[in-house]
Amino acid sequence: MAVAVIDDDVPFWDLYELGVVCTVFGIPHPDLADPWYDLRLCAAGPSPDRPVPAPAGFTMRTPYGLEGFDGADTVIIPSVPEACVDGERELPDELLRALRRAADRGARMVSLCAGAFALAAAGVLDGRRATAHWMHTEALARRHPEVEVDDSVLYVDDGNVLTSAGVTAGLDLCLHLVRRDLGAHVANQLARRLVVPAHRPGGQAQFVEVSVPSSGDEGLAPVLQWATERLDEPLTVDDLAARAGMSPRTFYRRLHAATGSTPLQWLLAQRLSRAQSLLEATALPVERVGELSGLGTAANLRRHFTLHFGVTPTDYRRAFPGRAARGVDRSQRTRRGEHPRHGKH
């Protein structure tokens, strides 16, 4: 799967977004998925091996010009120069034309942070909901009133066009793309290697107040880990609060401050992620997937799964042919009464 990313005239701060794209899509992980992505770094202009200016006294070189967009399944714009955000400078016409051609032929169009200004200038965001770094959303809405700008979320998945807020939210969106393409298991394992949360939903707020724990306070991590190991059990906010040694009100406030989610929203997200992994890696029937993920009946699993992912559990499983066979042994152990966490009953 080819991914083309434009890295022309990279601002210093936005080197992070470019680095995120290169880290997620440019480093193969054959033990997770083979083949991995084919990443192409592209620069405006026809010359091969073109030096791309960067701050701090160094340059980057790429063998691709904008022709690197041709045939790419995904085109990513990680940033644009600050002058283009402020309206002091227009983006190159050849870049905008290349973006329109890619969008017209059906490529998945993605922007991180201020990269949304390029997609908007090319008309790719017309009539769509989109986001960018909160410092730039007002300017984006003012300069492109045809775009429905949401300044509150981490990223927006509008089918074949996706946009993210700035800095770390770009990593959230890139992991979301891996999850869409290769499944929850691969995305979760990659996130673990990057030492970042496996899944922050796109609708989570850009502004998250992370409380500083008092001396001797272990924080929320132990109780959240405890909960993820027991998703197949009935869990309530009172259960989690008691495990954390807090009142339900304090636990609610602490979790919301740290994650932007309520306890019930957090539990549902974890259970849906578990259901994804089971559908990808095992041949378990949908009824059993619902039980092991804590979503209960098959009907309840289908309802939540379709609402959140836009496909039924069965259709989702069909997107990962051959993987379920590798989980047959585990599913057979489960049917024989060997719980994946507790062993034999």
From TrEMBL:
Residues 221-319 form the HTH araC/xylS-type domain. The keyword DNA-binding applies. Gene3D superfamilies: 3.40.50.880, Homeodomain-like. The keyword Transmembrane does not apply. Residues 321-345 are annotated as: Disordered. Keywords: DNA-binding, Transcription, Transcription regulation. Residues 326-337 have a biased composition (Basic and acidic residues). It holds the Pfam family HTH_18. InterPro entries: Class_I_gatase-like (IPR029062), DJ-1/PfpI (IPR002818), Homeodomain-like_sf (IPR009057), HTH_AraC (IPR018060), HTH_AraC-typ_CS (IPR018062), INH-QAR (IPR052158). This is Helix-turn-helix domain-containing protein.
